[in-house]
Each structure stands twice: as C-alpha cells, then as structure tokens.
Hints:
Strand content: 15-25%
Amino acid sequence: MIRESVLAPLIRPRRLRASEARRALTREHRVATDRLVQPLFIVEDDAAAGPIASLPGIFRLTLPQAVAEARLLHELGIQAVLLFGIPRHKDALGSTNYDPAGPVQRAIRAIKDAVPQLLVCADLCNCEYTDHGHCGLLDARGDVDNDRTLEVLARTALTYAQAGVDVIAPSDMMDGRVATIRGALDEDGFIQVAILAYAAKYASAFYGPFREAAGCAPQFGDRRTYQMDPGNVREAMREIDLDIREGADIVMVKPALAYLDVIRAARERFDVPIAAFSVSGEYAMLQAAAAKGWLDLERAVDEVLVSIVRAGADVIVTYFAKEYAGRNA
C-alpha cells in the first residue's frame, strides 16, 4: 500500500501563484511604462484632424492638440513619442518632407518647447509625402530609386535635427540610409541626435490601419522590393548588423507580434537596445475583438506587451501606450 505522504508532491510551483503578492514578487518580466513609445499623427491641415475609424481611440491631431497630448502622456509616465506627419500637399518628390515648416518639424519645436523632458522621435520616410505612396523616389521605369531617395532622407533628417528632435527613426528600408543620415547629421554638428533604425521591417498585412491614418497606401504595386519577406530571419539579422555598423543607436523589428522569434534572435545576437513596433493592425484586431465581447481588452493588451518584453525588446512602440500608462499610473 502506497502511503499518502509519498503521493504528496515535494515540489509545489503553485505555492508562488497563490496570491497576487506572490505572483508579483516572482514575476520574471514586466512592462515598464517608461519603455513605451506612443505614436502621434500630426496634420498640417486642421480640417484633416479627427478620429481614425480603423484605430479606435487614436486621432489625427492639430498642432495644439499634439502639444496637449504630449503633456498628458508625460504626466502619465510615458517618456517618448513617435511623430508621423500628414501634409496638405503631396508630390512625386515628397518635397513637403524636408520643408522646415512641415507638420513634423513644427510639432518637434512645439512639443520640445512645451515638454522639454519628453523624448521626441520622428519617423523618417517618404510614403506620407509622395503622391504615389511609395517610400522612395521613382525612376523612369516606376521603380524606387534607392540612391536618389537617400539624398531626400538626409535632407529631411537635417530639418528634423534643426527643429530639435532627439531621435530620428528611418523606416523606409533603403539600403545605406543609416550611414547616409548619420554622416549628414555628424557633418552638421548634430552628433547627439540618435538614430532608431527600422532595421527589420517586414512587408506585412498588419499595416492596413496605419495606411488609412496617414493616407499613404501605394497607388500601384507594393513595397516588397524594399520591405522584407515575412519568411526570412537570417536576412533580418544581416539587416540589423548592417544598420548597427552604419551607426544606428537602436534597432527595431516591425511588426512585433507576428515576429517575436525575430526579436528573440536579435536579442541573442546583438548587444544594443532593441525596439519593437506593435503596429496598427495588432492594435485594431484587439480593439475589434474586444468590441465584439470576444476578449478582455486589458488582459489581452497586458499579454501582448509582456510577450514582446519576454522576447527581448527593450523599447515598445505601441498605440496602447497611453491606455496602459493610464491604468498603471
């Protein structure tokens, strides 16, 4: 006959799950509010401001609204914002992108004046500014001209730096852009401006709501000749390595949720800060499911964010930053 004492487990992992205090004490990974970055959409034309249908709770903001939002975010403990501009005018060359009075440049100045402690990052790309919606200038055949695009990126980066930006975040996926931007910044004395490179940016279906928000869907073709194929991990490591060697201070994997393995691979290989962008489609699908009553939004957000931290990200760009900070303040 087997004694009861033999049947009783000697090791009981459940002991440390018995209360919230015990669970909190032994929790391995946490989401820190000061590691979250809130994206902000800044319009040049005030008439274009307002709610974004596919991103419930997210708005296109006028300049005064953006400043007020930046103040509130900082009060909630968020330390950084990422700016996207929505210009009044678009053309084939994306000329509004490097206008010193453009929406992002004006927002940088206004936010830094109002909340100097807040880290202001500016996305650097051409897709919001070109009438064709591609991330680079086009050649005579209609293909994206990599090297001509680099000139525009460097020119725009300088206007961001002159406006007082803290971090420039090139998202275009042109070859050599980090080295070109770093060289232009250093030559003009902006050695303290950091670069957060979208190093492994995949050609993803999860960008749909963003393209509505920014009005930047390609008018023809797609972006697969410059954004990465979803099946590739080794290529992502090569892209990240190249960006680090070209002078990137932080490297990013985008999207986050469908590419947690890429974040983990990058964390294991590279000893630099790693960011992840939990993109518009990730936000929208959780909001849509919650609206149907199919999941608990707060718990789902917590799980998604901690999964990104657990994979190895130091920084998370997420549309949920404000919501998360508000209930954890």
